[in-house]
Amino acid sequence: MQGVCLVIGAGAGIGGTVGRRFARAGYHAALCRRTGQEDLDALVAEIEADGGGASGHLLNAVDDGAIEELVEKVETEIGPIEVVVYNLGAQIGNRPLTETSYKAFELGWRMATFGLFRLANAVIPAMEARGSGTLLVTSATAAVRGNAGQHSHAAAMGGRRMLCQSLNAEFAPKGIHVAHILVDGSVDAPDTLGKMLGEEGFQALRESRGGEHDGLMLPEKMAETYLHIAEQHRSVWTHELDLRSFSDLAWWNHR
Amino acid sequence: MQGVCLVIGAGAGIGGTVGRRFARAGYHAALCRRTGQEDLDALVAEIEADGGGASGHLLNAVDDGAIEELVEKVETEIGPIEVVVYNLGAQIGNRPLTETSYKAFELGWRMATFGLFRLANAVIPAMEARGSGTLLVTSATAAVRGNAGQHSHAAAMGGRRMLCQSLNAEFAPKGIHVAHILVDGSVDAPDTLGKMLGEEGFQALRESRGGEHDGLMLPEKMAETYLHIAEQHRSVWTHELDLRSFSDLAWWNHR
Amino acid sequence: MQGVCLVIGAGAGIGGTVGRRFARAGYHAALCRRTGQEDLDALVAEIEADGGGASGHLLNAVDDGAIEELVEKVETEIGPIEVVVYNLGAQIGNRPLTETSYKAFELGWRMATFGLFRLANAVIPAMEARGSGTLLVTSATAAVRGNAGQHSHAAAMGGRRMLCQSLNAEFAPKGIHVAHILVDGSVDAPDTLGKMLGEEGFQALRESRGGEHDGLMLPEKMAETYLHIAEQHRSVWTHELDLRSFSDLAWWNHR
Amino acid sequence: MQGVCLVIGAGAGIGGTVGRRFARAGYHAALCRRTGQEDLDALVAEIEADGGGASGHLLNAVDDGAIEELVEKVETEIGPIEVVVYNLGAQIGNRPLTETSYKAFELGWRMATFGLFRLANAVIPAMEARGSGTLLVTSATAAVRGNAGQHSHAAAMGGRRMLCQSLNAEFAPKGIHVAHILVDGSVDAPDTLGKMLGEEGFQALRESRGGEHDGLMLPEKMAETYLHIAEQHRSVWTHELDLRSFSDLAWWNHR
Question: Could you tell me which of D227, D222, D228 has the C-alpha nearest to residue D243?
Fold first, then answer.
């Protein structure tokens, strides 16, 4: 059976692109997203047309048992999960405290923190039995600093980062590579940033970043680093790295 | 009406001692703990015998509405809450991933992260209206690094720390002081560490720390720093500080 | 003999004010600055008029042997140095790489890093023999992040911070308290910020910070925290804390 | 002319191996080390036998003008320096404060901090004129925490890290990629760790790390990550990453 790269959160930005890249590297890409069967089917078809293996799975990660069942199904029906990309964001935009509902705060935690914990519970025992496995976690600036209006996002991502460290501490010696990938810039992703800004605003942002538009982070290029991290030899593992465009200001700097 | 110092988590260690110290400084100490009416009554009586004002409140902070109602009651019946000490821990000892239940993980978040968010929602609007207020948050090493077995605790405390930062970013300019107090050592607290180690083990630890037993962190001494932080002039606020005994190894060091 | 608080860098801002505060708390304030005999004499006279003990010492800290001789002289002629405040800054304003001379870069290191190392060498052995002592190090945002144009300052302060940690690791168990005080805001200091901005610019900044001018960090208020840190019981030491005004943006935030 | 990868500190561990890897990727490897002409010649011969381009340069990086002249010579005689690897360590083992001489402390700074500053001054203007360039800086745990006995090393590496950040802040927008690579484990390097431990001790350590000896960090595997970082597209740059073996404990963890 072919090794599987499971992507939780496989939209048109980082997730889907990373899945496609791993498929090209020989993995079966098991792609999950909450909605959008058509887009998912199109992505699977594209990968298969390219000679790769892929499958699409609609998944609401916050549903009880959803992640756990998916992991079991993939392991049973497709193949051993060698790489997991946890790519669920929890950004809800800047909201003052009084406009951040309990429900939004809890949902942030369910997606960003608890979902990762559930995934780890579901997927790591089989990896441990095999003596290897990789868990790549997309993260955000909010994991390392809480900005105004980011109550839900920062609490959720801060929890995610510490969880990645405790997972690494327990499982690195057992051959499981956990990496916390800090995305500290604007991604050229129509599905997330694009929707947040609207079509016109997004296009304006793109153009403000120069002729090659690479002042935004290009998902195809990001995917190269995801793949590299997954392919690092176990004697040389990266647990945490940041990623941003040359034109982004690092989170610790200001103008 | 007298200014109130509300302590969420007022046991025999940090919380109760800090409450007593603030009472001596002129605040009414509103002391909350989950169980132990007798101990609570005794603490209130002790403060009153000392000439201070205090009240005791049994509170299960994770119950829906419990924190919110308490805040409203204190503001209405006792006085304006000038200082809040959020002192609920979420340490459950080191547990491997497979022995960390979903329930334990969620409870950690409810106590360490969501409880603070609910408290902030309940108490900050009145502080904002008054143009001042102080929120002192006891935190732990797990807020800055995830150790093996600390999945629940680290995720919960990491979320707490980022939340403190986002609260500070929104409310410092409005006169509200949020401080994240990183307790990075063993506290001489019979209620928590003592119970975890058992009476004999706790006594042995105490004695291993030298004749004055001050190799453990003494709550009476910690309370002085809590009070100092609350009394800092608004032109000189500390948002984060660490505390440990001279004989503790800082979390970033190793032997 | 009276316990001494030695202040290296005792100008009209933090250093001199902290010295005055410690004198009021019963220490002999040994005040050092590079130039300005008259201002130094005036400060000593003011402290003495207030009933305190003080002495003034012109000192070019980067001169070979200058710090070492001063420490010896103070220990011999005045009294045991119980507290040292290392308050030499090394800010030279923002300068592009090509305008940062080797000389400026080296001078930054000599003042901010090497000077502290020399001071530690000179003063800690006597403290160690006495089993106690306090080293308070004023530091800056540049110790935790390198901003554009801050090559010299950031390299120097980053070194200073790591040195504080290694000193703490070696000497805390021996009863010596080392604290790294991160000043992360604009200080209301005519000698430093005032000279950098010019009289008019400084006054404009002051007024922009509101009617009580406490949007700038007030040295008198900062001195209270310096004193508190020095007075912490050894079971409850702070190694690192940040300080900023309620109206300053924390270094990790942006607008 | 062929693009050059200049390696400052090209011994038998990370530096030489990285140089060899870049040569295989098409760069001319300009390899510098302080002593060991024979080893250097052998490495150059090995690269050339492999079909690559290389040159060897003896260089005492702390000599006045040495780095500057080398950069000029390479740019003039060999080709444009597209990548620089600054790989000079400054570890002198654990030494108590009183056994850390002023000379050792200063030498640490000259190698770890000032040398990088001088290199940046020498090499960045030409990179800036070309609109691209990469500066890979090998760093150590001491850059992020000061341990006991690490006074010289920690101060030097802490300065190095902050300098990398200020260089990144100024030059990333100009197309120059600066990466701070935190080596947080024991490298299988006979020249450094091997010499420190002695032949027998080093062999014992190797064997303690398991049958494949990959509990030590293998330089050949590290070189893959150095190359990946240099090849990242400018829309997706990593500024900081850590590297350790699966069997190393991360610096923030303890047993």
Answer: D222
pLDDT, tens digit, 9 for 90 and up, residues C80-99:
999 999 999 988 899 999 99
Question: What are D's interface residues with B at a Cβ cutoff of 8 A?
Answer: 144-145, 147-148, 249, 251-254
The band of A211, judged by pLDDT with boundaries at 50, 70 and 90, is low
Residue appearing with tokens 């108490």: B123
Q: What is the pLDDT of residue C201?
A: 85
Q: What is the pTM of this model?
A: 0.96
- Amino acid present at C230: A
Question: Domains of chain B (ranges plus CATH)?
Answer: 4-241 (3.40.50.720)
C-beta of residue C79 within 8 angstroms of C-beta of residue C1: yes
Q: Which residue of D has its CA nearest to A251?
A: D169
User: Within a 10 A sphere around the Cβ of B26, how many other Cβ atoms?
Assistant: 11
- Other CB atoms within 10 Å distance of the CB of residue B206: 18
Determine, for residues D147 and B254 on separate chains, whether the beta-carbon distance falls below 8 Å: yes
Burial A136-174 (b: 16+ CB within 10 A, else e): bbbbbbbbbbbbbbbbbbbbbbbbbbbbbbbbbbbbbee
User: Taken in order A210, A216, A220, A221, is the CA torsion positive or negative?
Assistant: positive
Q: Do B252 and D145 touch (CB under 8 A)?
A: yes
Indicate yes or no: CB of A147 within 8 angstroms of CB of C254: yes
Q: What is the mean pLDDT of residues B80-103?
A: 96
Chosen for mutation from D246, D247, D251 (greatest number of chain A CBs closer than 10 Å) is D246
Q: Using CA atoms, how far apart are residues A151 and A149, in angstroms rounded to an integer?
A: 6
Task: Give the number of other CB atoms < 10 A from CB of residue B193.
Answer: 19
User: For B147, which of D144, D145, D253 is closest by C-beta distance?
Assistant: D253
Tens of pLDDT along chain C (255 residues) come to 689 999 999 998 999 999 999 999 999 999 999 999 999 999 999 999 999 999 999 999 999 999 999 999 999 999 999 999 999 998 889 999 999 999 999 999 999 999 999 999 999 999 999 999 999 999 999 999 999 999 999 999 999 999 999 999 999 999 999 999 999 999 998 777 777 788 888 888 888 776 566 789 999 999 999 999 999 999 999 999 999 999 999 999 987
Retrieve residue B3's tokens. 């200014």
Token reading at C71:
């420490």
CB contact (8 A) between residue C241 and residue B238: yes
In Å, how far is A65's CA from the nearest CA of chain D? 31
Task: Tell me the average pLDDT of chain A.
Answer: 95
Which chain D positions have a beta carbon within 8 Å of A245's beta carbon? 234-237
**Could you tell me how many residues make up chain C?**
255
- Predicted confidence at residue A1, as pLDDT, reads 67
Looking at the complex, report in whole angstroms how far the Cα of residue A160 sits from the nearest Cα belonging to chain C: 19
Report angle CA B177, B182, B185 to the nearest 5 degrees.
Answer: 150
CB spacing of C144 vs A252 below 8 angstroms: yes
**Residue D88 burial (CB count, 10 A):** 24
In this predicted complex, what is the ipTM? Answer: 0.96
The amino acid sitting at D238 is T
Low-confidence ranges of chain D (pLDDT < 70): 1, 210-213
> What is the least distance, in Å, from the CA of D242 to any CA of chain C?
17
Q: Which residues of D touch A18 (CB under 8 A)?
A: none
Cα distance between residue C208 and residue C194, in whole Å: 14
